[in-house]
Write a structure and sequence with these properties.
Layout: H1 2-14, E1 29-32, E2 35-38, E3 49-52, E4 56-58, E5 61-70, E6 75-78, E7 84-89, E8 96-97, E9 102-107, H2 109-140, H3 146-171, E10 186-189, E11 194-199, E12 206-207, E13 215-218, E14 222-230, E15 242-246, E16 255-266, E17 272-280, E18 291-297, E19 301-303, E20 305-307, E21 312-313, E22 318-323, E23 330-341, E24 347-352, E25 359-363
Antiparallel strand pairs: 1-2, 2-23, 3-25, 4-19, 5-14, 5-18, 6-13, 7-9, 7-12, 8-11, 9-10, 11-13, 14-17, 15-16, 15-18, 16-17, 20-24, 21-22, 22-23, 23-24
Helix pairs in contact: 2-3
């Protein structure tokens, strides 16, 4: 907006004075307060265009940058919980997988010892459970004492806790111990359904638990755009509002999106707010990590909108020129309150100062500036 004003001001400075414009004299234009009168036979009138204002649908627009990411819960990096050697692989780059599917297997002494301990705890638990249930029945028949029953319950509870701890250790790594068999290799399963978008599996290679992820899975049928919106624009963003997403690969093909979330924190360095935009990505044009342009568009409202060429910037306020006579040679300078502009800054919303039916100078107003 400021650039538009500066351009207009510079144009005003470059326009020749009336005395220097090929025979026109200062008497062709007279100024009295905010009233400008142009001689009826002045050629300046031919250079001035006017239009009658009517309310029109206007949407506030602005652009910013964003980054593509998978929806929460639709992106996962897969590694190994124990050191070992990869024995088999069931996937490759581009494979489609489902949650729970075995991706690859690893021969791991650490896993073998952990699973051995689990099955030992499982046997102890089953034995303690059976003993407690038997003594509970005998107690009801008056065969065993209360003390014997309490001892059996204590053994059962201790065994249950040991088994639960072993199960929790495996579940923390995304493994289901109920489906394990004694002596089996470590099976790494898919935590989500999606596509293998990165694959570093090499059968026979030795890997460590603290190494980088071997696989990356993503379901990019729907994605989120993390857009950085300057705080001065955040008032124009509404949840559920429309957003157009553009990529460098197809800059003329917008992808429709909706505002999903508006952050409540302002980055102190960039003075911007994080806004999440949800997009359908069935055609997979948006790639995880891709930089995009986000075009925010508010809901259209009826408003007074004028061409940017009609607005001038004074020392304290903006103003336009109004045609004040049927002859078209008397103009009034009127202060206006300027709102937002459209995306290319060619049309500007006037918040206050103009009414429908006003005839404004849309082109050539710089000739009226003294």
């Amino acid at each position: 907006m400021k650039k538009t004003y500066y351009a207009i001001i510079m144009a005003c400075l470059l326009v020749p004075s009336c005395k220097e414009s090929g025979g026109e004299t200062n008497q062709e234009i007279t100024y009295q307060g905010d009233t400008v009168t142009v001689s009826a036979n002045s050629p300046i009138l031919s250079r001035i265009s006017t239009e009658i204002l009517e309310k029109e649908a206007f949407s506030s627009e602005f652009r910013t940058v964003g980054t593509v990411q998978a929806e929460m819960g639709h992106y996962a990096e897969v590694g190994v919980p124990f050191d070992g050697r990869i024995t088999t692989s069931n996937v490759m780059l581009g494979s489609r997988v489902y949650a729970g599917q075995t991706l690859f297997e690893v021969s791991s002494p650490e896993f073998f010892e952990a699973s051995k301990q689990y099955f030992q705890n499982l046997r102890i638990y089953e034995t303690a459970k059976s003993s407690y249930q038997r003594k509970k029945a005998l107690k009801e028949a008056g065969v065993v004492s209360e003390r014997e029953l309490e001892e059996a319950y204590t053994e059962f509870e201790n065994a249950r806790q040991e088994k639960s701890a072993s199960e929790a250790a495996f579940r923390a790594y995304g493994m289901d111990p109920s489906g394990m068999e004694p002596g089996q290799a470590m099976r790494i399963v898919a935590p989500i359904s999606g596509e293998v978008v990165r694959c570093n599996i090499i059968p026979g290679s030795f890997i460590k638990a603290d190494s980088e992820a071997l696989l990356t899975l993503a379901d990019l049928g729907r994605v989120w755009i993390t857009a950085q919106v300057k705080e001065r624009f955040i008032g124009r963003v509404t949840k559920g509002g429309s957003v157009e997403i553009f990529t460098e690969a197809e800059p003329d093909c917008p992808i429709a999106g909706k505002v999903l979330n508006i952050g409540n924190l302002v980055d102190e360095q960039t003075r911007s707010v994080q806004v999440i935009v949800a997009c359908d990505n069935t055609e997979l044009k948006l790639k995880h990590g891709m930089y995009v342009s986000a075009h925010f568009i508010s809901e259209p409202e009826d408003a007074i909108v004028v061409p940017a060429t009609a607005i001038f910037q004074g020392e304290k306020s903006s103003y336009v020129y109004i045609a004040a006579s049927d002859k078209g040679n008397i103009f009034l300078r009127r202060k206006v309150t300027v709102g937002e502009s459209n995306d290319d800054n060619t049309r500007i919303h006037i918040v206050d100062g103009l009414l429908p039916g006003d005839r404004i100078v849309s082109e050539g107003g710089l000739y009226l500036n003294n």
